[in-house]
Every structure is written in C-alpha cells, then in structure tokens.
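Q: Sequence in, structure out?
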Amino acid sequence: MTDHYDVIIIGTGAGGGTLAHTLAPSGKRLLLLERGDFLPRELANWDPGPVFVDGRYISPDTWYDSGGRPFQPQVHYFVGGATKLYGAALYRLRPEDFGEMRHADGVSPAWPVSYQEFEPWYTKAEWLYRVRGVHGEDPTEGDWSKQYPYPPVSHEPRIQGISDAMAAAGYHPFHAPCGILLDEANRPMSTCIRCATCDGYPCLVHAKADAEVIAVRPLLGRPNVTLLTGAEVLRVGTDPSGRVVTEVVVRRGGETEVFTGDLVAVCAGAANSAKILLASASDRHSAGLANGSGQVGRNYMYHNSKAVIALGKEPNTTVFQKTLALNDFYFAGDARQWPLGNIQMLGKSNAEAVKGEEPKLTMLAPRWSLDEVARHAVDFWLTTEDVPKPENRVTLDREGRLHLAYEPTDEEEATGLYHELRKILNHIGMASHHLLDKNFYLSMDVPVDGVAHQAGTCRFGTDPATSVLDVDCKAHELDNLYVVDTSFFPSIGAVNPALTAMANAIRVGEHLLDRMS
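A: Exactly. Output:
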C-alpha cells in the first residue's frame, strides 16, 4: 500500500462515497478513509428493538452541548455513512431555496449558484441513486432536464385513499422520491422486498440506494481505489506556506499513520468535518485550518422536524408507507406570513416502537393494545427549515472534544405546519385530536442529539470574509483542500438534504477531474 495518493477522501457517505464514485473511472489513485467499518448484515437489521430501543447501530461517540453536558449523538460511522440508516428520501431543494428566503427567525441566505446552474447534477444524482418518482406532480418543484429513471413506488390502498382525499380537498399530494432498488413491474428481478424497515433501519438485502451499495461497493477491487476502515482522521497538515495540504494524520488500530495526497476532500459530516479543520490549527492557521473567516463550525443547521402518529378508525395495513408527500405549505402565501415546510410519510409504526416512543403513556398498556394502536397508525414527518445562526456552532475544547451549541429556530413555523396537518386529517377522515408525538430517534433528550440532517458548518460562497469554501467547494485559503458533504450548505431548505449532497459531490468530482487533467 502506497502512502501517497492523487486524492484522499475522508468519509464515505453521501458526499465522500459519491465523490469517490465520480473520480474512480479516471484511474487516479484514491484513498478512502472511513472511521467505521462495514455495517454487519444480520437479522437485527430489521428488528425495531435493537435498532430503535437499544440503539445498536448508533456509533459510540461523546459530544458536549453548550453547557458542557455530555450526550451521545445519533451518528452512524459505517461505510456509506449516515445513508446506511437514512430513509432513502431523495428530494431536490426548490428553486426558491437557492435564493434568499425570509423566515420568522431570520433570513436564509442565497446560494452562490442558482437552481438552474445546479440542476444538471440533480439529474445525474437521481440516475446514479436510482431514484423512483415522477417529475411534474409537485407544483413547487423546479425545472427538470430528465425524468426520474424509474416510476414512483406505488401507493398501497390506505395511502392511495389518503392521497385521493387530499386531492379532493384541494391539496397537491405527490409521490415521494425514493431511492430503493425495487422493480414492481418485474418482481422476480427486484432486490427490495417492500418491507416496513426502510426508514431508520439498515437494509439486510442491500435494497436501499445508500452510498455504500451504490457508490462505494462497486469500486472495491479497482486497482486505483484503496478503502481503509477503522481510520479516524485526527488532523490535516500543510506545508510551511500554509497554502498546500501535505498530510492526513490517521488513528487506525491504535496506531498513528500518515498519508499524503495531491488533493484532500473532507467529507466527514457537518460536525466532524468542522472538528477536523479546527483540530488542524497550526502557526499558519491559528484558528483552525481554512478558518481565516472564523466561519468554520458556525451556522450549524438541523431541520426543525416533528414525527407524528395519527390514529384513524380504519386499520392501516400498509407495509411500505413512505410513498406520499405534500409541499402545499412550503412557501408563504394564502394568508401564511412565513414558509412552513414539507410533510411526508414515515415508516410504519409497530407495537414495540410505540412502547419505546411513549414509555409513560404505554407503561401499563398490554401488548394487544399497543398492537391495536400500531394497526391504526398513519405516520407523518414534518420538516421546517432551520435558519443558519452564527451562534449555532461546533467548537473544540482544550482536550479536543467536540462541543455543539445549538438552539432550534422557526418554532412558530413548525407549529404552523403541525396545525396544517391537523386540518388535513379532518379532510381525510382522521380525527385531528388522535395524535401522538413520535420520536423517530428515541431518547432525544435535547435537540442536538439527533443529527441526521446536520449541515452548514463550512458554507460556500464568493466572499472569503463570510464563507469557508469557494463555489467549487475548495477552501479559500488553501490550494488543494475541499469539503464535500452537507457542510457547504448556506441554507438547508425544508426537505431531506441527501440528494443535494450527492449532486454536489458529482459536481465537485467533475471539477476535480478537469483540474487533474
């Protein structure tokens, strides 16, 4: 194994894995550094007890909040990163999300690129990750240059009835874009068995279009690609000028190793990418690598989300429930002063998950009653945009421990979206007072624990005084350092960020191919 590579990629998730997939055909020597290992394929992958109650796949890590309280973040250090347990919901941001948008708690700034400029890479990401959907159903979406590669996952009868009732009431439901390897027209060739365990579970049969299955695993065996697991990056070093990254220092198997590369891409997730840069402080970069603007770690965003169980008289026998979404309240208008966000379906509840999610309410409840609750449950996920705030930030203490100061924003908008859902339930024949809060990630004592949609700690822009990265996601202050994950987001929108991270990784990858050629 060589110690020098053309490109070193730190992290193998939506950003790093997709970047590697884009670069690998060039023949350039790539080193992929993954802090975790391959997620084991085992029956527990589909068991709600180990997954949600025991937190079997939550990686051991300790962060600290602004008051110094230690907590275990809901992070997943595996090949494929956070996508190994994501819900495979692959939405585009709306065109308006790329411009300045005013919210109850502030302004989401404009991106340095427009939706029209970014669109070609959305299409490439949708085709790479085999997204199932149909462009043209959602009136809030932007222009698209190519239809989804596969038709949408069909609604099961209960969800089709909800969709029809929404449409009859004047709403505009659409098929949720899903990255699952399902062929409904030719079931014998299908990998997906259409189970209820896509949302928040690992996929035992590798039918989820995650970064490991789609982007990294196809590269294994290529002579120009080296993947090292169990490799935690401690810091990145530069030459004496401070302009060129010269080494990546890694802890692996209890030993410290050093690798060099012509180009380095940090793709460790918004919090950990900021941690690596801050931990790489030196004489030339006293506040942290690439941090002359003081923006590294700042503007941390995490969607203001709420998971809700709605209970109806009619049983819900749906298996795969994540097929329906609604953006009627995404923007201000119709007497709404502020944009409210996105409504989509969640994975189907089960009795064990209900017991874990509402321990006080269900403490004395017999199992049969919980089964009955789950049988009638319809599960919704409400997402409101979180406005970037400089004080919401990642910092390191003297021991190098990660501290995350975070206060959610736009609570008024999130409450408004919840009230809109209650109105919808009355239109579709479900009593709006039969609602249970559903903590999708269990035991979330404070908002900072759930970090699935983290973004924004190394925003890109044209002004080095107010951003960390340039438009190509290269650090303003360094010649060969890139950050290619959700850290680059100036704003987060109100839909799942994974597809945008994947599209940007393809975009930056093509830029690097041009640069290296």
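Residues 498-516 form the longest helix (19 residues).
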